[in-house]
Amino acid sequence: MITSFKSELKINISGPDIIAALFTVEWAQHISDGITKGVYAPNQAMPTLLMLIWVSTFGMGLVWYICGHLNVTEVIGIFPVPVQYGFLACIAWKVLKYGFKISMGYDNWLDPLRIGLVVLAFALGTALYFFKKWNHHLAVRILVFFMFVPIVGFLIIVLGSGGNFNKDSVLREQYILFPYYENLPFYSLYVESYGNLTTGNIAWEALWKPTILINIFSMWIVLLIDSLLKIAGTQSELEFEFDGNGSKEIVKTGKMNIFAALVGIASPGYPQVKFNVLSYNIIENTKDRRVGYLVAIINGFLWISG
């Protein structure tokens, strides 16, 4: 919401990226291993992970804020092109890897059904990419088709074969569907009924583990570079020039993340090229702030609805 209100590019949309989530997985794994070894208590798991996310987001906000004032956006201009594209390729490989694992269902990889699922996912994803790339004027129709037709097709196949979507469904046991979660109010994550988020239940020593600290510092560096690339990519794709080559946008991003961390637990977020280009292809202008407002309202409603 703040991005849409403050950004020079009025259709700018911010959000957490998958990169931050990949680092969070490492923290969760560390805590899980600690519980197995008896270092941490089970009731410390969620509070400690949330605190690590909070610390990383607050720190990331400070990094963006300081670097914006130091005009580090110029640094991306001296990065060799192979380095920039190598960096993006590394991220793409991670996305492809986890997309492949999720499509296969994590087990029984030689099962013909699993192979069929990953082939279907690859075909749909590839088709969506090229349709969007070559048919900007049909962006809305293409997106609506790919958002609903594959899902409806999947539902028909499951129901037609006698399957179901109950919490004890075989599809959930085989990881074709996500685990079943009870509907709970959003604040239940933070109150006593769900982890008791108090200082006594946070394993503070986890914040000072060398592996965790190195991981957090690495995330800050990676997200800083990625955000600079996102600014450069937005300017290139939309032929839009940010004031100061994006330094002011980085400062705003820093302020927003500091604010987000102070009012709750939030993953680091910053403007995303994919959303900006998608918005532009749909409304064909860069001056309508209502796009970001609508995205914020819909996602906010889904979050607080439980």
Question: Descriptors for this entry?
Answer:
306 residues; mainly alpha; two-stranded antiparallel sheet; 63% helix
Task: Walk me through the structure.
- With about 300 residues, this protein is mostly helical.
- The protein is about 65% helix and about 0% strand.
- The chain is built from eleven helices and two strands.
- Strands 1-2 form a two-stranded antiparallel sheet.
- The protein is globular, with a radius of gyration of 21 Å.
- Distance between termini? 20 Å
Q: Would you tell me the structural class of the helices and strands? A: mainly alpha
How would a crystallographer describe the biggest sheet? 2 strands, antiparallel
Shape: globular
- Tell me, rounded to a whole number, the average pLDDT: 83
Counted beta strands? 2
What is the rounded Rg? Answer: 21 Å
Proportion of residues in helical segments: 55-70%
Q: pLDDT under 50 segments (min length 5)?
A: none
Order of helices and strands: HEHHHHHHHHEHH
Q: What portion of the residues fall into strands of 2 or more residues?
A: under 5%
Q: Going across the major beta sheet, what is the strand order?
A: 1-2
Q: What is the count of DSSP helices, taking H or I runs of 4+ residues?
A: 11
